UniProtKB/TrEMBL annotation:
First and last residues shown, out of full length: 1 to 310 of 617
GTP-binding in keyword set: yes
Organism listed in the record: Carboxydichorda subterranea
Gene (UniProt): typA
Subcellular location: Cytoplasm
Family, as annotated: Belongs to the TRAFAC class translation factor GTPase superfamily. Classic translation factor GTPase family. BipA subfamily.
Protein name: Large ribosomal subunit assembly factor BipA
Lineage top rank: taxon: Bacteria
Amino acid sequence: MNTGIRNVAIIAHVDHGKTTLVDAMLRQSGLFRANQQLEERILDRDELERERGITILAKNTAILYGPVKINIIDTPGHADFGGEVERVLRMADGALLVVDAFEGPMPQTRFVLRKAFETHLKPIVVINKMDVPNARPKEVLDEVLDLFIELGADEQQIDFPVLYASARQGWASADPAARSGTMRPLFEAILEEVPTPSGDPSAPLQVLVTTLDYNEYLGRIGIGRVVNGTLRAGQPVMVSDRQGRLRPAKVGTLLTFLGLKREEVTEVQAGDIVAVTGIEALEIGETITDPERPSPLPPIRVEAPTISMY
Ligand code: GDP
């Protein structure tokens, strides 16, 4: 078990404030470490904007809250291209459902929430934009509850924690009538509510590739979760395709996420999310596994990109 990590997906209808919320969390990242001055730790806005210019909302962002690294996994906002939402949710152990305090749940809220339930995630509800004058948090909470019931939430899921937030102003609070000055209540809720990742660093290696990326220097990059075992840079592996056929390969470099950047590391243990280079022809849904004791994970659904209607 990796107690120093939480993997949380962020799900929302478009424009309900995912990007702004992650920005606010990033700006306060590291803020709450031992007695440091608040201002010192806040990422310079220009610096953040410069990084964002390149990444927009990065698909993977990591935020430090004390000793804990919170991996934040973005989900597609508009439409689901070939089951991408389902795939990326597989990297997470919990979800932040962001809902606009005025608009309430919208079609994409329903769509992503259904997918989160199918993936057995328990969402934390974030009612955002509490600063807008026409915010109606009480009704919106009722609408969210109705939606949970309608989508068949189980007993655990229906008991969801709620936070009221203004991502724009950088605060979250458990009490709709009292604002806090920071995002601390949201960080605390993530630590408390999102299960620590399961997985055994000494078990046979299993890395499920859920996303592909490309970089002109590094070539094809596979992003996924180390489900079990420990992945080491340069190690020989077996790659299992979606039909369960095995082929030998060698890992290049490994990167983990930190803020909006990626950081090269020598090994990544079960529970964390990794970007792997050096494996040509790596595909979504494949498992990177141990060369001596290959143990492929069940293949995940991959479809040709289609725009789903909902
Ligand atoms: P996304 O599509 O979910 O990533 O949404 P964005 O984070 O891009 O936000 C969409 C719009 O809502 C932007 O104009 C934001 O500035 C605005 N917004 C986001 N959070 C808040 C908030 O807490 N209060 C207010 N008033 N506006 C917000």
